[in-house]
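sanity check this fold:
=====
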Amino acid sequence: MRTANPVAATAATAALALLAGCAALPPEQRTATITRTAHGVAHIAAPDMRTLAYGVAYAHAQDNVCQTAQQLVTVRGERSRHFGAAATALLGRRMLPNEQIDFFVAAHMDDAALAQAWASASAEAREMASGYVEGYNRFLADRAGRLPAACQGQAWVQPMTLAEFRRLQEVNLVQAGIAALADAMVGAQPPAAKAASAPSSTAADLAQPDAEAHALGLAEPPLGSNAWAFGKDVTANGRGLLLGNPHFPWAGVNRFWQMHLTIPGSLDVMGASTGHGAVVHIGFNKDVAWSHTVSTGKRFTLHELKLVPGDPTSHLVDGTPEKMRARTLTIQVRGADGTLAPKSLTLWATRWGPVIANPRLGLAWTAERAYALQDANTRNVRSVDSWLRINRAGSLEALRAAHGNLGIPWVNTIAADRAGRAMYADISVVPDVDDALLKECAPGAQAAALRTSAAGIVVLDGSRSACQWRRDAASPVPGLVAPGRMPVAIRGDWVHNSNDSFFHTHPAQRFDGVPPLVGDDVLRRPRTRSGLIEVPELVARGPVTPAAAQAQLFANRNLMARVVLPDLLAACAGTPGAPTAEARDGCAALRGWDRSNDTGARGAHLFREFWRQASAIPGVYRLPYDRAQPVATPAGLKMDDAAVAARVWEALAKVVQAVRGAGFALDAPLGSVQRPLITDEPIALHGGEDFEGVLNNLGNQFAPGIGTRGLRIDYGTSYVQTVTFDERGPVAQAILAYGQSTDPASPHATDQLRLFSAKQWPTLPFHADDVAKARVGEVLKLVRP
């Protein structure tokens, strides 16, 4: 009997507990309707938010139940219990050993504090949370014994609790902060503990600092995006037009899922979201379309602690010793024989936050100093209400105001409205640290240098109580930069962002008085250069249309090839120096390449691997970066420098060997080399890497480079949309590059990969009559208990 199934029984119990005390409502007031259209896009309608979230959770689980079940194991801190300590998994943006994840979760998650914080959220946000939990648990009960193969019969598939829903939100919010340094947090041990040699010492077990490239990735996070918004001055129809192109992982909790949410008379919004909840993160309603790009704003600061001599777990504040707070945490670890054993670790915290240690960045815990991290997004429960307000915005003014509670955690917003205006805004969570505070609270020289290094980490003096974040009376959240001091531009022509700062929104746009932790004027990303070249070219060709914007993005132009290949090929022709035979073969292949990253482009893979290596050569450019000419520089190759030239030829020769060793011709079409990692289907992929300046960004997060299986893609263009407006409302086309479902057996696991490969943009049905005409399959009606 189904009720005998423990998952079903537990799910029913959890649902009843959540519903205790609720007054009974007639069925029609508790019914969520799920309609599917082409490619499995879910249209969910309900009379209220709780019922809507119930339907969203159920529909999302239909496509991704095993993914959610896995993420619940993560936020419970039980990965080592089920999968062993050494196996790795995603924690936000990072791939870490399960043991580190579990200790981080045990240390960071405070269910009582999260519950208290959620009490300050709107009633609607709280109803959403409850409904989502109920809907997911209803799906587990309905499908007991019939889950996808990846999680069928697994003990780790358990119902969701309200506390776990809150934890799911928390992990998403802090992935640009403390979660990005989770290994530094669990590896932070005082000098005496680090010296201990006892086998049970977790300091020895866990002190595995990231490779420096990962550590420096804090300044340029692996989540990227492009977004362009055009106003009536340049569009063909005189209305706003948006292109949104987030570059997110193709697996894990940051994977997008498409949905259309309707509460009659209250909410009608469509688009895609990551994580779990009944809000659209990137999308459109009848009046406004928006997208997000990861912004340059800082989400945390470090505080340099002066330790009490002879006591490395006490630090001085205004000359007075303060004892660090010690917490000994215990997790259960599955051994090779399947038995469980406890493992304990003591972690440390201060008034500023948890102690972290990353020796590769010079952030070691010594007898004299240590470092603590203060995260601005910890328990930022405001985010749900921010996106609910965005979802309902009827104009750019309303969209801007929706950011006013400072809930948007780590992204810019680029938007267009049907009135024909374009907007850029970075009104995100940023610590209020001005130039004066940076000067007054400067740490030691080594720590201070981190701010201007590639890491971009801000460190303040933790020995003075005055070195806390500023308290601006205009800010709704003490310690965060007030919305009125954050950069916003509303224009009639265009704005864009490709993850560099607000300074590069538009060549003519100026911003004054923006605090330093929001961003600076350095242009770091080749994609930003590409945007500042290609968007004006698009505008100059005539009135902008959705088709023209789509074609521009998927032209897959390779900026850095255009910038450096002329010098490389000229040098290869004879002077200066004579490259090796392998380098000459590489030149021959690159000479025949069209300098695009289309599937038919021959030699694109060779350039990518060459430039992956050569771009890191010190002094490689003939013209170095010039802040006065950020789009034009850096440029060329300094091939008249014998030392540089030798390293360039060496890099090219080694890459030729690597490509041939992997079994590919130097002039193979890119589509025969570049394929998705999430499936073995031979689906040719167009696009290129950020470091190449290809706007349509594709890559591999954890195993970059060519191998015997080619270039396997697990990251990049994900939910890509264009939206404009007519007299009825939005006119939208979109591709979810990988598909709606993570179940390989689903017809929607890879169907949109083929659309992406063919550059086919489906039109999304938004109006009720269009949804009805486009319906695929039967309508599902779910009555909430």
